[in-house]
Each structure stands twice: as C-alpha cells, then as structure tokens.
C-alpha cells in the first residue's frame, strides 16, 4: 500500500499525534489498511477522524438526506397536488421520476442554477417546435416532451420548496445547500483536513477543498503518474492536470505526488477468452504463476459483478479471500420468485377463473420451502403434468396446494396492504428454515423493503395498485445489492473497480475488460441531451470515461503482474470487443504485452457412444423379458439399443411434461382412441352404410371421449394450434370412415372382428428348447370379402412395406430401423396364424397411416421370400439382443 504509506509517513513527520487530522477519503475501504500501516509503525496515539467527502459535505449542509422510496412517495404527493396534465397515477410517475431525479441532482451539483437549466430545456423544445401548430394534437411525441419540461419548470421548484420546509434534501440539494456555507466553514473551522487520492471533484467539493487550502486548513495528496499526467492526450490525467493549475498550488505548496511507476518493468498479459464465464476458468492457471500462495498482494477485479458466483466456484483452493463488492439482488432466486409473485397477482386481476401453470411452477421452485411443502409441491406437479393441465382452475389449485405453508400468497390479494403484511410474515417464517447465508440476507433485504414501503405509505392517501407495488419492488431489486464482509487484510481480494481506490496490489487480475464494461461508454440513463450537458458543464459519458481511465491506470501503475481478460464472444449486449484501454497500452506504452487466446475447451461429457455390457444381472433381466416380448420392444432396439436397455431392462420411463401444444405422440393417441371408440360400437357387425354415416355424425362425441382418456381438459382444445390439431384429427377420422363407407358402397362385405385385440403367450421358438413369448395389441382386425385384415394405425408415413428376403440377407434383413414397420406386421401375421379362432382364413397385414388416411390400408408385400423367412430374420434379431457377447451400443443419430 505504497501511496497510503507515503501519506502516513508524511503526516507523522508533521505531527506525531494524528488525532489532529481529519482524513477525507473517496470511500471507506482504505481505513482498515491505514490502521494496519499505523500498527506496523508502532503508532500508539489516538486515531485520526475518517470521513468520506460525501459525509463532510452532508455535515456542512446540515440537512436530512432523503432518497429512494420515501422520496418517490413525497414527490408524487407534491406532483399530484399541482394538478398538472397529464394526471399521472403513481405507477406512471415511477416510470419517469427516478431518472429525472438523477438528472436534477446532476443539475444541482454541477450547474449554477437548476432553474436556468430547466428553463433552457423548455426553450430548447419550444425552438424545435417553432414550425408546428402547438394548439393541435397533444399526443405528438415532441409536444409531449415540451409539455413534460413545461411541467418540470413548475413541479421541481415546488418540490424543492416542500422538501426544504421539512429540512429534507436530495444529494443534489445537499450540495447546493453546502455551497452557500463552504466559504464560512473554511474560514472558521479549527480543524485540519487531509484529502487523499481524489481524482474528479464536483464544483462544491472543489470549492470546499480549495477554500480549506486557501486558509491553510487542508492538504491534498494526489496519486498521479507521469505516464498519463504529462501527456495531454491521456484522458486518465484530465482532472488531475486541471487540479494542478489551481492557484492554491504555488512555490509554497507543491502538487503532491506525481510518480513514475507506470514505466517500471511489468509483466502484462492480455487474454482473449471465448465466453463470459470461461474467463473465471482461467483464474486457477493465473494463480499458479503467483509465488505468494497467501495471495495477500493480489486483487481479482470483476468489472461484471455477475461473474462473482462463477469466480468463487473456481477459488475453492484459496484459503483466505475477501469479497469487497456487492452482489446484485436481482440475480438471486428469492428475488426472481418475488417478481413472479407480483406478476401472478397482476394476472389474477385480469383472469379470475384460472391459473396458467407457467405462472405457478417457477414460484414453487424458487421460493424456500420446508420438507412438508416439498411433498405437497411434488404431488401437485405430478398430477398437473399427468393430466396435462395448462390452465389450473382455482378449485383444483385449492385441492392440490392448500397444504402449502404460503398458499395464501398464490391467491388473489384483497389489497396491497394486506399482501405486504402477508409477505412480511412469510419472510419471517422463511428465516426459520435451513437456508444458506446469502439466501438469508436476500430474504432479510426484502422483509426490510416491504416494511419500509408499508410504513412510508401510511402518511399518504395514495392508491397503490398491485402493478404500482410491483414497479416499486422492481426498482428496489434493481438498485440493491448484498454486501459481503470479510477479512480485508488477509488473502486474496475480490473487488469491483471503484473499491480499488487508494489501494495498490502487486498482482492485478481484471475480468471483463470489454468495451462497454471499461469504460461504460455512452450508456447514461438521462433525459438531458449531450449538448445541453456540455453547455452547463454537467458530466457526460466523456467525463465518466476519464474517471474510469484514471481508476484503471492508477490500479496497474504500481502492479508488477497485470492480467487483463476479456470476453471475445458477441452475445446479447456484449459486442466481444476488447476495451480501448487495452489497445491504448498496446500502442502507446513501452511495455511488452503477451497475448493469449483461450478457447472454450469444454468438451462433451462423452465423445463416444454409450456402451453397456450384458452383466449377469442384465442377462437375468433379459430372461425375464423373454416371457413378454412385443413388436415395439424390437423396433425400440432397432432405433437405439440404449433406449431398449433403459426402458425394458431398467424399467425407466420418460417423465411427464406439460404440453401447451399437442405433441405428435398425443395427436396420434387422440386419433387412435377416437377410432377405438368409433369401431368398438361396430364390433362384430357386418357394416352397413347407415352404421358409418351415423358414426361420421358422432365423431365429435367420440373425440371428447378420447380427450377424457388422455386426461386432457376440454378447454385445452378450444383455441390456438390445439384447436387446429383437433380439427385435423376429426378430418382424419372422417377420411377413415369415408374410406370404409366407399368399400361398402362398392358392394364389398366388411366386418369388424376386433378392436385393440390383446394377445399374449404366443410362443416363438429359438434355438434348441429356447423360446420367447409374444404379447401386444392389434389396433384393428376386420374381414374384407373373407380375407382377414390385420391393421396397425400409424401417425407417421408408410415406409418399406415391400419385403425382399432371400438366402443372402435373411439373417440381417430386420437389423435395420428403416424396416421396422414391416417387422411389426410380420410379427402380427405370425401371431394371428397361431390364434385358433383365425385358422383357415387368408391373412393380409397392413398399415393405415393418419398422414394419408384417404389411401386406406397399405398391405405388406412379399416380393421375395415369405412369412417363414421373415420370422427367421426376427429370430436373428432376438438372438442378438439375448447374446451376452453383444453389448448394448448407443446409436448416434446424424442430422
């Protein structure tokens, strides 16, 4: 901590009793390092007083600060009392006031008169409108903007007056109040002030520092470097060069200190990394290069605070680390759940009859829960997924979730005050559960925020809708962060860029050194245009860039090893462009820079197909499987042996998922079940024209029965794509019935023998005395003019129903997933041959595809060979499945 050491030695040389000094710092963090330096110097006196410059300005202004929710509520009360047009309600007011308030604070801090700036904005808009008839449409965007600044010229002066009556002040008003008192304070104070490590001042801060210097009641220590101070082109030295011109610095008081540290030998490495989180994966490799394994002189600076969790994940080998930065509240699960709770309440105001499942499921996943709650939630999700309920009725929600400890939060609230009370109670209950420290902090933040909102609302007669409460909470979530506490004097330091002020480290590692992160660039959220900010000397993004440049160069000027990592991938708002500060060092500095390209080297978990050997347990399961073999088992094996292993050997099944749009599988089931209902009524009959005409009229009724079988809600099919799917299903069923009707009209005799015919224990011999038994269901068996037809319904199109088996290919003919439809029909043919009731009939097997229902049944044809040859190929496939030496190997599908 070279800079701080120099200051302490200088002050001790002036006065061995440091309690005579008030040390003014840009932030609180260096205080602990100053105390350590005093301890190392065996200082035994009283400590100096420490202040931030904001605290000193506040002390001079002597006004009570007001910000955030209390300020918004008070300001809206003032705005409403003025009856300005448009008469925004509180939710509309919150959309523009927080941004305006920041602008107003900037105006108060940097300009001589806020009213002059407000009037100028109004005049500027009037000039832009000179050629338009201002008496016409108020909805023209320019006219709206003009009216806005006209209103602000009325509203903000009154707001300032009302705040002053209460002795309340925004940060800008505190600066304005302090400005009038600074000259008197500087002349009359008996204390001595030491300003350490400042770069940019607001006009009020500059007036304070220069006033105290004038009366010899202050001294300033700046940390500058010749590299960026002497070169006018270097934006990092912009403010310091200006400070050196102050008349208070003369031959009697020199400008301290301009050092020559940046030019000293350094190892600078720039890492081009493919991916944002991938940057953190490089950290362990960088740590290997650091000799001091306590990392006490190393700082990891995160320019993107969202990288904190990923960075901590890779630092498990570091014994001591200190986090000096906040983690955004908005990135935590409880924050997301609270946002979703308010969104749910808004939806309930619109729809009083049901809940959309996507509004409920994330809340149940993200809110902390007890073991009892977990059981209730798992049961609820299982039942909703099984029945594919997209819109859950209030009655059903009560039946399934009323046992949940926070069920009241999911019901429509009677009012915002009541809901706030419920949320406060819920937060108190959650803190008794076993939750981690970060989540505990998260919940505590919200409990505190809910209390503040509730208490602050009490004095005002403001109607708060759920939408307004949601905006208030979101403003809070987006602006708050959880601060970490650690041991700042030991181990590795993890910090944001602003936390590095006044501190120096031997090893500096910066992550996300991208344009847009360092510097932030033109991303100011403001209503005041750039040219007007320049005219009134308000800070623009250019000044902010200079401030960031100073922090960056100051941090690396004392470092010996500098590692700069940036994300080279373009995604979202990230352009994948390295910071221009890296380019500046590359082109302008004398340092040699090593460049490294880090590709995202993460590989798939497995690069070769899954392979499972047939252990004794697997073989035992296969012996059990032989007792009930279905055609679909064999087609599953053909498609992917691993699927067969998972479903038939391990007996696993796919989890239910809620379908918002009917899947291909369930579309097939809808048609299938409907046809089953249609023909079940006609079973055992020789069909007449009237039978089929009656069935066509009753299709809707049969489809509704099929929907019940699928356990779907009727309203699932009332709109959108599902309505279309149902209409297509109806057309397919109509085409099948019409096809049968045409057969009868042409004089054919058609009799429905059976529907969904179950068969089992149909033995099929293997080698020696070994055998398997077939079981399954045949979709439809009918008799057309004396020929028995075995029909299998398929959603897919028909493929390869022409069988060509000869002596050369008989063994492997059905070892091909392209021929699975023919395989299935051959097994059905074999089975029906072995059912005594069908002996003696000529047999025809075929597929009836829903994709081309008008075609009717397409028959299996033997161009070469016969059913006996086909069953030899089926036998070969079954023997392969049973062969202990042939492993189950995953089939990799290429697309």
TrEMBL record:
Gene3D superfamilies: 3.90.320.10. Residues 629-886 form the PD-(D/E)XK endonuclease-like domain. Pfam families: PDDEXK_1. InterPro entries: P-loop_NTPase, PDDEXK-like_dom_sf, PDDEXK_AddAB-type, Restrct_endonuc-II-like. It comes from the Bacteria. This is PD-(D/E)XK nuclease family protein. The lineage of its organism: Bacteria, Pseudomonadati, Bacteroidota, Flavobacteriia, Flavobacteriales.
């Amino acid at each position: 901590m070279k800079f701080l050491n120099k200051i302490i030695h200088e002050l001790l040389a002036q006065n061995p009793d440091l309690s005579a000094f008030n040390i003014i710092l840009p932030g609180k963090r260096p205080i602990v390092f100053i105390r350590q330096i005093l301890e190392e110097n065996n200082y035994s006196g009283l400590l100096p007083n420490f202040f931030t410059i904001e605290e000193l300005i506040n002390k001079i202004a002597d006004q009570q600060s007001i910000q955030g929710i209390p300020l918004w509520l008070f300001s809206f009360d003032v705005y409403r009392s003025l009856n300005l047009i448009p008469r925004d309600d509180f939710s509309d007011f919150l959309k523009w006031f927080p941004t305006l308030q920041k602008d107003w604070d900037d105006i108060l801090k940097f300009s001589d008169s806020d009213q002059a700036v407000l009037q100028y904005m109004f005049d500027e808009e009037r000039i832009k409108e000179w050629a338009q008839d201002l008496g016409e449409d108020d909805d023209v965007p320019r006219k709206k903007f003009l009216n806005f600044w006209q209103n602000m010229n009325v509203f903000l002066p009154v707001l300032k007056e009302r705040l002053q009556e209460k002795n309340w002040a925004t940060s800008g008003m505190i600066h304005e109040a302090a400005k009038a008192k600074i000259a008197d304070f500087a002349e009359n104070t008996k204390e001595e002030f030491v300003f350490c490590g400042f770069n940019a001042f607001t006009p009020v801060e500059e007036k304070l520092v220069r006033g105290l210097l004038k009366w010899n009641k202050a001294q300033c220590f700046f940390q500058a470097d010749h590299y960026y101070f002497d070169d006018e082109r270097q934006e990092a030295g912009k403010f310091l060069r200006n400070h050196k011109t102050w008349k208070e610095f003369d031959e009697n008081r020199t400008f301290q200190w301009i050092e020559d540290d940046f030019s000293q030998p350094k190892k600078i490495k720039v890492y081009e990394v493919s991916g944002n989180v991938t940057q953190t994966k490089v950290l362990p490799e960088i740590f290997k290069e650091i000799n001091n394994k306590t990392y006490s002189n190393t700082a990891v600076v995160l320019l993107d605070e969202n990288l904190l969790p990923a960075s901590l994940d890779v630092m498990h080998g570091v014994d001591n680390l200190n986090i000096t930065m906040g983690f955004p509240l908005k990135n935590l699960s409880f924050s997301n759940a609270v946002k979703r709770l308010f969104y749910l309440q808004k939806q309930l105001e619109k729809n009083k009859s049901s809940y959309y499942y996507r509004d409920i499921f994330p809340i149940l996943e993200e809110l902390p829960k007890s073991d009892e709650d977990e059981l209730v939630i798992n049961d609820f999700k299982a039942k909703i997924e099984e029945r594919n309920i997209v819109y859950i009725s209030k009655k059903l929600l009560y039946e399934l979730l009323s046992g949940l400890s926070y069920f009241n939060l999911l019901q429509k609230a009677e009012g915002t005050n009541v809901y706030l009370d419920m949320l406060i109670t819920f937060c108190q209950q959650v803190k008794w559960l076993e939750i981690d420290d970060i989540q505990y902090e998260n919940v505590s933040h919200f409990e505190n925020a809910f209390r503040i909102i509730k208490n602050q609302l009490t004095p005002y007669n403001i109607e708060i809708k759920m939408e307004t409460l949601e905006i208030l909470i979101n403003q809070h979530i987006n602006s708050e962060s959880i601060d970490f506490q650690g041991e700042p004097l030991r181990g590795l330091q993890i910090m944001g860029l602003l936390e590095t002020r006044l501190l120096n480290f031997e090893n500096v590692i910066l992550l996300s050194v991208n344009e847009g992160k360092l510097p932030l660039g033109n991303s100011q959220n403001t209503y005041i245009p750039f040219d007007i900010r320049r005219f009134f000397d308000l800070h623009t993004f250019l000044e902010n860039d200079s401030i960031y440049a100073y922090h960056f160069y100051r941090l690396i000027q004392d470092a010996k090893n500098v590692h700069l990592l940036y994300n080279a991938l373009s995604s979202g708002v990230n352009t994948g462009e390295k910071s221009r500060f890296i380019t500046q060092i590359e082109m302008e500095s004398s340092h040699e820079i090593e460049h490294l390209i880090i590709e995202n080297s993460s590989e798939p978990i497995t690069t070769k197909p899954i392979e499972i050997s047939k252990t004794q347990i697997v073989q035992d399961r296969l012996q059990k499987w032989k007792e009930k073999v279905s055609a679909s088992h064999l087609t599953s094996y053909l498609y992917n042996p691993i699927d067969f292993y998972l479903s038939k050997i391990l007996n696993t099944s796919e989890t239910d998922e809620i379908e918002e749009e009917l899947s291909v599988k369930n579309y097939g089931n809808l048609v299938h079940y409907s046809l089953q209902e249609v023909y079940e009524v006609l079973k055992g009959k020789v069909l007449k024209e009237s039978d089929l005409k009656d069935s066509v009229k009753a299709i809707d009724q049969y489809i509704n029965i099929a929907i019940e079988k699928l356990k779907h809600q009727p309203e699932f099919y009332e709109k959108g794509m599902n309505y279309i799917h149902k209409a297509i299903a109806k057309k397919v069923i109509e085409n099948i019935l019409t096809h049968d009707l045409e057969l009868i009209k042409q004089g054919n005799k058609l009799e429905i023998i059976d529907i969904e015919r179950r068969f089992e224990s149909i033995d099929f011999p293997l080698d020696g005395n070994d055998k398997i038994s077939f079981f399954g269901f045949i979709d439809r068996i009918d008799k057309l003019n004396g020929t028995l037809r075995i029909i299998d319904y398929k959603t897919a199109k028909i493929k390869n129903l022409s069988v060509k088996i000869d002596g050369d290919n008989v063994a492997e003919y059905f070892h091909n997933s392209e021929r699975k439809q023919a395989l299935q029909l051959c097994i059905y043919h074999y089975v029906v041959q072995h059912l005594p009731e069908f002996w003696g009939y000529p047999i025809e097997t075929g597929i009836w595809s829903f994709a081309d229902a008008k075609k009717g049944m397409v028959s299996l044809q033997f161009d070469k060979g016969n059913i006996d040859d086909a069953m030899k190929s089926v036998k070969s496939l079954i023997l392969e499945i049973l062969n202990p030496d042939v492993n189950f190997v995953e089939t990799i599908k290429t697309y």
